[in-house]
Amino acid sequence: MLKNFKGYSGLDAITGKGNFDIAEYIILQMLSEFSIYNCTLAMLCKTTVAKNIIRDIKKHEFRISKANMYVFDANDVFGVSCDAALFVVDMGIDNTSVCNVFDYYTNSKIRQFGWHEDSFYSDIPVDNAITDIDGKCCFEWRQGIKHDCSKIMELTLIKDLEFVNGLNERVSLDVGKFVFPLLKSSDIKSREITKTRKYVIVPQRAVNADTSNIQNIDKNVWNYLVKHGNLLNARRSIIYKKAPPFAIFGVGDYSFEKYKVGISGFYKEPLFAFITGEIPIMLDDTCYFLGFGDVTVAVIVTALLNSPICNTFLKSIAFLDSKRPYTKEILKRIDLSKLADRISYEYIANFVDDMKSVYSVTLEQYEIFKKT
Prior knowledge:
This protein is α+β, with helices and mostly antiparallel strands. The chain has 15 helices and 17 strands. The strands form three sheets. It has a six-stranded mixed beta sheet with strand order 1-3-2-4-5-6, with helices on one face. Helix 10 packs across helix 14. The two termini are 46 Å apart.
């Protein structure tokens, strides 16, 4: 694995966004070396490598006249659990920024991915109704809390105010100050969530906020964190090295919004959940969410994001063979204002009626939402 070859800076570089497979480096080197020849390069690689090369093609000086990817069962052939393909690239005068995907065994075309009208698609759509909602989300997508120490920071409720941690230790802690309900990716299975199976310790309200005040506010939480300070201090990521004791990341005012709309980053089928509880519910860093103080707006956004047209659009821009198909970069391309123009009030009303909780959205409220 080559480290940060692409030159990412800041948190992206620290958390590994700049890392990539050695095969990508080799293919890029070969494409550069043979760019002056009329030739064909064929190489076995992960499908994500081919995706990255086509996605970043405009950053390189070499030209590709044709690119094909022939996907096969890597587990059956090599005993390796990953999505792999034979990546075949023709060099030449012509220039393309798309790649055709074929089934290796039948030679039948599956899809085409690449650049289309200045946007990158995993499955280039032919329906303008899909591409029309491509843009920029009017709300900011957030990633959930990152703590890198689940045995200490994540708790399971046994009975009122009594928890057990990952070391099977029992601890009594108050909820609502530094202990909050938590959702993980595997918990987002329905369109409405009001209860959680897990809790998480949130020692900060903002990144790099001082944590020493915990001992004056909640001695039980403070003593618990101090007791397990050796494990928290042993977290390997460099992001914790200069941070306050017991620090976490992915936390801010948005984490404490009463209403959230969240999605797991892992599953192939996009499902957006309306999330709320008596105490703000946190999400972990495998999830992404929007936070709201207005329940009506949160419910409307939940309905819009679960619409068939949004589902189809997401599948056209997300690579479902990736470990994490849905990321902040993918989700922020959903232009909710454009999406709302294509979704009727009747759909919104029916969606809300099907929710377990008693909510309602009037036509006037929906029209106000569409104008703001």
